[in-house]
Amino acid sequence: MIVVMKPGATPDDIQRVIERVQSFGLGVHISTGELRTIVGILGNTSGLERSTFEVMEGVESVVRITRPYKVASREFKPFDTVIEVRGVRIGGPGLVVMAGPCSVESRSQILEAAHAVKEAGAHILRGGAYKPRTSPYSFQGLGVEGLELLAEAREATGLPIVTEVMSPDEVSLVCQYADILQIGARNMQNYRLLQAVGQVQKPVLLKRGLSSTIQELLMSAEYILAGGNYEVILCERGIRTFETYTRNTLDINAIPVLKQLSHLPVIGDPSHGTGKWELVAPVAKACVAAGADGLMIEVHPNPELAWSDGSQSLRPERFAALMQELTALAAAVGRSL
Ligand code: PEP
Ligand code: MN
């Protein structure tokens, strides 16, 4: 349920509404727009009457959220959520590009990748230290050493870092290094993990599950928001379909749908969405044209030697060329890069 305050509501009016909500043992989330303040009510509101708030001074209307995801919905918060990470704003007019290798492999590899993506104009460095691999015999990531190398790459380039966390008991460790915690597609419905990242004050990049619906993605985001962490970035990274030519089918529809249903920033991942480097540039452009707030792109100094996802990784020169093309495209859709 949300309480929409009148444009002229005073801070005292808003405070009285907040106190009334709290008197029922419920929490509040305040959204401040240009004209209006919206008091979102957190918790189980099924026993609340709308009239309780409708009669209060400064209240314009009271709306019950009909969607199963509440805090994630645009009904709850009509204004876009903008997440700031070390000066980079995600969800605002500027597109945000997160780029780097699939896995952190060595000091020289991550530093080379970091400098290359920074030079090309990327805003955030990606790289996995804990890798969810289909085979237990595949490279599982460098673990803490990988996190330390990422921190060194951040130091060297100034780029904030996003990296995956796979288990609830590793959240506090990964938090010591990462600027954004990534929840991988395979863990999108790992509810204990979602609850654990809901307890920290660190932005979370939540990737859509391999076979998850848009609603399931939003329900997973809701787990994190319900814990009190309001900084969630949604990522469309392709889903399983009957098509096998590409690794996954990037669901371009999901981008405008998520923007419509939710206030959270949405990014596209054409690397995992296609599995083929030749398709990364055209699908990246499609994501931007469809309204994505940014992209996640795998870039490797030497893709043929990559320990994971080499076939979908761009060489630095190709990434730089794509960034140039995206700059022109961004302007055409009223964004900047
Ligand atoms: C990754 O980002 O390297 C990754 C493992 O992605 P996903 O969880 O989308 O497969
Ligand atoms: Mn990968």
Question: What report would you give on this structure?
Answer:
The model has no long low-confidence stretch (mean pLDDT 97). Strand 7, helix 3 and strand 8 form a beta-alpha-beta unit. The chain is built from eleven helices and 14 strands. It has an eight-stranded parallel barrel with strand order 7-8-9-10-11-12-13-14, surrounded by six helices. It has a four-stranded antiparallel beta sheet with strand order 2-3-1-4. Strands 5-6 form a two-stranded antiparallel sheet. 34% of the residues lie in helices and 18% in strands. It has two domains: 62 residues, Phospho-2-dehydro-3-deoxyheptonate aldolase, domain 1 (Alpha-Beta Plaits); 250 residues, Aldolase class I (TIM Barrel, Alpha-Beta Barrel), CATH 3.20.20. The protein is an alpha/beta fold. It is elongated and about 65 Å long. The protein binds phosphoenolpyruvate (PEP) and manganese (II) ion. The site of phosphoenolpyruvate has 9 residues, from loops.
Short recap of the structure:
The chain has 337 residues and is an alpha/beta fold. The protein is built from eleven helices and 14 strands. The longest helix has 17 residues, at 316-332.
In terms of structural class, how would the helical and strand content be classed? alpha/beta
Q: Portion of residues in helices?
A: 25-40%
State the CATH architecture of the largest domain.
Answer: Alpha-Beta Barrel
Could you give the count of β-strands? 14
Gap from first CA to last CA: 36 Å
> Unreliable runs, pLDDT <50, ≥5 residues?
none
Number of distinct helices: 11
Q: Report the top-level CATH class of the largest domain.
A: Alpha Beta
**Global outline:** elongated
Spatial strand order of the main sheet: 7-8-9-10-11-12-13-14
The proportion of strand residues reads 15-25%
CATH topology of the largest domain: TIM Barrel
By CATH's scheme, which homologous superfamily of the largest domain applies? Answer: Aldolase class I
Whole-number mean pLDDT = 97
